[in-house]
């Protein structure tokens, strides 16, 4: 079977990829429909929760602040309200939010389809690691999503919701703007946490090595800080909180790259 797949033409590979994408899209749409029907849970319970001063993240930061004898990180209220200015805005927000939720819920299946497309080009022992790959990839993605929801989103909502250039300006936030902030924070964090998986495949393709990652560690630090500045409010504390796990993931990526190189050398020696 592997030999037949290796002899597939370019158009055959494109056709194979198309069906992987079709199945992935179908599952995403299925979960999107389910999310669409669960409007109260998605919006009132999940997405609008960071708007409340009683949100778990705000309470945690307040406890930390009080531990050090200050109330600096405690908030009593987020002084802004939501508004809908376009006729179809709320329906559009509902549709795109459902699709985002569908993608998040279907992620393990999407990764499984991705693995099936790539597996013919892998060694037999690597193909046996499919379940491990799916579990680790999904775990990292969901951890990233939770990090985006419980850390990046409340930091952004708190900072931007309280920021004001003048008392004359009322804080009436478009519903689409708020939901877009939450969606982008969650998805960006989820994809960033896939860094070790990306490094695994880049190493397999021979595009990077552990020595390369070590050599450009300082450059990576700068990139991480810039990335943290993009997805978080422009304050030092928020950027540091976001940058730390990304740096940890970078170090994990170096370790994974080493393992891949060792396995490649071992396989080459066995086949020699």
UniProtKB/TrEMBL annotation:
Record keywords, A-Z: Cell membrane, Membrane, Protein transport, Translocation, Transmembrane, Transmembrane helix, Transport
What is a biological process (GO) this protein takes part in? Answer: protein transport by the Tat complex
Cite a single Pfam family from the UniProt record: TatC
A GO molecular-function descriptor? proton motive force dependent protein transmembrane transporter activity
Q: Which residues form a coiled coil?
A: none
Where would you find the membrane-spanning parts of this chain?
Answer: 27-49, 93-112, 133-152, 186-207, 219-236, 242-261
Main localisation? membrane
What does the protein in this record do?
A: Part of the twin-arginine translocation (Tat) system that transports large folded proteins containing a characteristic twin-arginine motif in their signal peptide across membranes.
Q: What is this protein called?
A: Sec-independent protein translocase protein TatC
């Amino acid at each position: 079977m592997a030999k037949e797949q290796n002899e597939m033409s370019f158009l055959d590979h494109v056709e194979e990829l198309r069906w992987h994408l079709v199945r992935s899209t179908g599952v995403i749409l299925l979960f999107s429909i389910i999310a669409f029907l669960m409007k109260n849970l998605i919006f009132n319970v999940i997405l609008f929760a960071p708007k409340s001063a009683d949100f778990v993240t705000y309470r945690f930061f307040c406890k930390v602040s009080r531990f050090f004898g200050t109330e600096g990180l405690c908030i009593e209220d987020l002084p802004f309200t939501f508004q809908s200015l376009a006729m179809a805005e709320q329906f559009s927000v509902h549709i795109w939010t459902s699709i985002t939720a569908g993608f998040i819920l279907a992620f393990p299946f999407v990764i499984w389809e991705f693995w099936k497309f790539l597996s013919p080009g892998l060694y037999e022992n690597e193909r046996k690691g499919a379940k491990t790959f799916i579990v680790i990839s999904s775990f990292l993605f969901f951890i990233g999503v939770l990090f985006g929801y419980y850390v990046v989103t409340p930091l952004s909502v708190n900072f931007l919701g309280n920021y004001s250039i003048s008392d004359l300006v009322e804080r009436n936030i478009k519903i689409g703007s708020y939901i877009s902030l939450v969606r982008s924070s969650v998805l960006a964090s989820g994809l960033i946490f896939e860094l070790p998986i990306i490094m695994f495949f880049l190493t397999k393709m021979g595009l990077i090595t552990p020595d390369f990652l070590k050599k450009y560690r300082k450059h990576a630090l700068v990139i991480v800080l810039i990335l943290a500045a993009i997805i978080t409010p422009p304050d030092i504390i928020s950027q540091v909180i976001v940058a730390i796990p990304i740096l940890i993931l970078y170090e994990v990526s170096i370790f994974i790259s080493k393992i891949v190189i060792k396995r490649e050398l071992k396989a080459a020696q066995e086949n020699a």
